[in-house]
Amino acid sequence: MNEPVCEAHAISKRFGGTLALDQVSLRLAAGEAHALVGENGAGKSTLIKVLTGVHRPDGGTVRHLGRPVSFSGPADAQDAGISSIYQEVELAPLLSVADNLFLGREPITRLGLLDRSRLRREATEVLARYGVTVDVRRPLGELGLGIRQMVAIARAVSARARLVIMDEPTSSLAPREADRLADVIEVLREQGIAILYVTHKLDEVFRVCQRVSVLRDGRLIHTGLLRETSRIGLVAAMLGRPVAEVRRHGVTSFGEAHEVGRAAPVLRAESLVREHALHGVSIEVRPGEVVGLAGLLGSGRSETARAVFGADPLDAGSVEVAGRARRRWNPAIAIRSGVCMVPEDRKAEGVVPGLSVRDNITLAALPRLTRGGLVSRRARDRVVDAFVRRLGIKASSPDQKVGELSGGNQQKVLLARMLCLHPKVLILDEPTRGIDIGAKAEIQALIDELAQEGLGVLLVAELEEIVEGADTVVVLRDGTAAGVLRGAEIGERRIMELIAAAGSDGSVGGRFDD
Amino acid sequence: MTTGQAERAAPLSPATGTGRTRLAALAQRHGAALVLVLVVLLGSLTFGSSFTGAGNLGAIALDASYLLLVATGMTFVILSGGIDLSVGSVLALSGVLAAYGSRWGTAGAVLLPLAVCGLIGLVNGLLIGRARLAPFVVTLATLLFARGLAFAVTQEGNQVYIIPADLALTRIGQANVLGVGVPVLIALAVFVAAGVVLNRTRFGLRVFAAGNGDGHAAELMGLPVARIRVRVYVLSSLLAGLAGVLIAAQTTSGLPTLGEGRELEAIAAVVIGGTLLTGGAGSLGGTLAGVLLLKVIQNLINQVGTLSSAYQQVVSGTFLVLVVLVQATLARRRRQ
Question: What pLDDT does B199 receive?
């Protein structure tokens, strides 16, 4: 291994009660692209923020170029030679390309005025080295994301960076642009620059990087050379599942597979396409069936769920409910046709914490409980009582504010809100995230029960939950369905194999160039 | 998603903007100047020498010069992604303090108000830049503060301080050079200097950068965003203060009621001039055109004897809406 440029040693960082980083060590060597992978909340961004001085670690040290450092912020880190490139390119879109390249170290004349001609000349030269030829006077925001990414990299490198941190740099790039980025990273490596590469895309990890570190729940699970790492081993490490262990039933409370039979699908989504996210995913849900979506973060699980619900606009594809195709599709129409969704982010898209349990439950059903513009109190209380009892929502009274309830009970309130619309299909995006084990089991049992009553369920959840709760599993990889497993075929090993199977780069690229 | 497809298919060089987008962008950048030319032509054809006469044009120029000073500072503030509602009050306070300070001669009449205004700007800047409070709220507070202080100094307007007519300041404020009022020349000089600062210095470029995306991007690029903010608010307050001093010099007294609504007029001029209200893009040249446009329209409506001068604001308001509409359309198209 080459000499280390930057070294994190036993970094710990605590936010409130949660340990975001637990004794994480990382060694970033000159001329090496180091992949940092892990699921949501694994601690990747916290680690980056510690390295760039946004967060101060509670424990451990960062050594940069052999010396212990403690940066006061990104500016300080940048001065020391650590530059970051973010997912959403964080530059000034309204300023020119040249200005963006040199902001912070603008060339000036002897009079102290900006040397605009030198600025332009040097900017053109610098970009040419990355194969980008543009009029550097144009506003950056008018250019494509690929070029913006290149400008960000050129900026980082010409600021004499020794370490460049790239946070999901290809998440909004077209395949061609991603290829160009890989070439540029090669160039950077030859210059002896260390690269920390955060991504969810396995193919990229193996193509671009030499070494990989896996974080899970704030701990470093695995670190090693990629040529000594198997794809399936990496997937298992990311998901936190031992490769050998394949279980069908475990600690969670899903029941047996449901009698799905040959009923006609109640929901059929055909070839869903959304730029950068979905490249033709098809899903079918039958009454009483729990369809699980499996895949790594960024593989298109939530995106598929949201697309089926009409929450994000589609570039192509169709959604059909109970055999009826819809030309226009958005959440309002979806709910009217009987498709309801409990979103992933409970706090941002779900509960209204300041409102009571009663109001939260009946929020979406108000039109149905209204007579002549007035809400029927009696009808409303009946609905609320029924669901509070049925779901076992633990609240002091229906008047209690939802913000005061536990996460599990908040989730039940959300479920109740959707259930009182009498849906045919319920989409659940991570329904048990962030809630305690007891409530988790209750919610899983409830999903099971609802399915038995004939509700179709589309479930996005952790691998273990999917394996135990789903009758059908659609495995997603890079926005395409990598495979569909039914009944007895469903198993962790099988799912991980599908995720880890080498991506069919060519075919995906072909799709783009159409 | 035809645009997205086109972008993907294109090589790694930018797609050229469509003709319509270009035209719209051009209209945004130079729209105010264009309309100004048209309005001036219209005015001179309709009203002849009562509009184009040296006396009338001089009056427009004098009136515009105070607004130009305030709007110049406002341009910096808006470009940096902020807003300064306090300038009208600061202008009034400055006039009152100039009259009050004239007992210590011209130096007192200039330095006292500018020192106080600079301090108000510093408070604005520190609260917005360092404490990260919302510019709208902070400058609303200093708007009230400065206006209140102006009334307090004048015992609620009962005490009028007069600037002695033989003071150098008064003579400067009322003097003409080659038929042009000295305040006009001062405003122009300040405007040119501000143009150099904005377009030819690091600070100027960084003001633009700070206004791109809440300054978050600028911070990640390692720019001293807080310091930039502090400076633009100090500049804005100082220029409003200078306008107040010049008005006081011309009228030989300071009125605490002066400059009410001036902040909105300045904001209107800046936005009409093509500067994005959200910051990050715009120009001082546009602001000059915006200021002149507002003042010429005001003058023309006064020329039409039958129209109440209140219509001036109706016209300005209409024009403002049109400009913002064009900006919004452009921004949306750019995002696609």
Answer: 92
Candidate from A161-165, A351-355, A373-377 with smallest mean pLDDT: A373-377
How near does any CA of chain B get to the CA of A14, in Å? 23
Q: Are A98 and A151 in contact (CB under 8 A)?
A: no
Q: How many CB atoms lie within 10 A of CB A74?
A: 20
Our CA dihedral for B99, B101, B102, B104, rounded to 10 degrees, sits at 170
How high is the mean pLDDT of chain B?
A: 85
Residue B221 to residue A106, Cβ atoms within 8 A: no
- Domain locations in chain B as residue ranges: 52-259
Q: Which letter, b or e, does each residue of A287-324 get, where b requires 16 or more Cβ atoms within 10 Å of its Cβ?
A: bbbbbbbbbbbbbbbbbbbbbbbbbbebbebebbbeee
Q: How confident is the model at residue A128 (pLDDT cuts 50, 70, 90)?
A: confident
Question: pLDDT (tens digit, 9 = 90+) per residue, B162-216?
Answer: 888 888 888 888 888 877 888 999 999 999 999 999 999 999 999 999 998 777 7
Task: Round to whole Å and give the CA distance between A431 and A342.
Answer: 7
Name all domains of chain A by residue range, CATH numbers in brackets: 4-239 (3.40.50.300), 267-513 (3.40.50.300)
Q: Backbone dihedral region of B332: left (phi > 0), alpha (psi from -120 to 50 degrees) or beta? A: alpha
Write phi, then psi, for A247 (nearest 5 degrees).
-120, 155
Q: List, as one string, the DSSP characters of A226-263.
A: GGG--HHHHHHHHHT--SS---SS-SS---SPP--TTP
Among the listed residues A62, A459, A451, A35, the one whose alpha carbon sits nearest the alpha carbon of residue A212: A35
Distance CA A303, CA B198 (A): 44
What pTM does this model have? 0.72
How many beta-carbon contacts under 8 Å exist across A and B? Answer: 108
Q: Are strands A456-460 and A425-429 parallel, antiparallel or unpaired?
A: parallel
- How close is the nearest chain A Cα to the Cα of B18, in Å? 11
- Interface ipTM: 0.79
Question: Is B124 within 8 Å of B142 (Cβ atoms)?
Answer: yes
User: Which of A71, A94, A110, A183 to probe the B interface (max B CBs under 10 A)?
Assistant: A94
- The answer to whether the Cβ–Cβ distance between B222 and A512 falls below 8 Å is no
CA distances from A490 to A291, A294, A302, A317, A388 (A): 11, 11, 20, 27, 34
* Predicted pLDDT at A257: 55
Tracing tokens 């011209």 back to the chain, one arrives at B106
Q: Would you say A6 and A81 are in contact if contact means Cβ atoms under 8 Å apart?
A: no
pLDDT at A40: 67
Cα B163 versus chain centre, distance: 26
3-state helix, strand, coil in chain B (%, to 5): 75, 0, 20
In whole angstroms, give the CA distance from residue B285 to residue B273. 7
CA pair distance B254, B252, nearest whole angstrom: 7
Residues A233-245 have pLDDT tens digits of: 888 888 776 654 4
Classify residue A2 as exposed, middle or buried by CB count within 10 Å of its CB (0-12, 13-18, 19+).
exposed
Q: Under a CB-based contact definition with an 8 Å cutoff, are residues A425 and A265 in contact?
A: no
Sorted by sequence, the CB contacts under 8 Å of residue A144 that are 6+ apart come out as A177, B7, B10, B12, B14, B15
CA atoms within 13 A on the CB side of A176: 17
A387 with A361: CB under 8 angstroms?
A: yes
Query: How many residues are listed for chain A in this entry?
Result: 514
Decide if A94 touches B, using CB distance below 8 A.
yes
**Token pair belonging to B228:** 């930039």
**Count of residues in chain B:** 336
Closest by CA position to B196, among listed A112, A92, A100, A121: A112
Contacts of A90 in chain B (CB under 8 A): 213, 216-217, 220-221
Give, in order, the Cα–Cα distances in Å from A445 to each of A81, A260, A466.
53, 17, 13
- Chain A positions in Cβ-Cβ contact with residue B217 (cut-off 8 Å): 90-92
Helices in A137-296 by DSSP H: which ranges?
145-158, 175-190, 202-208, 231-239
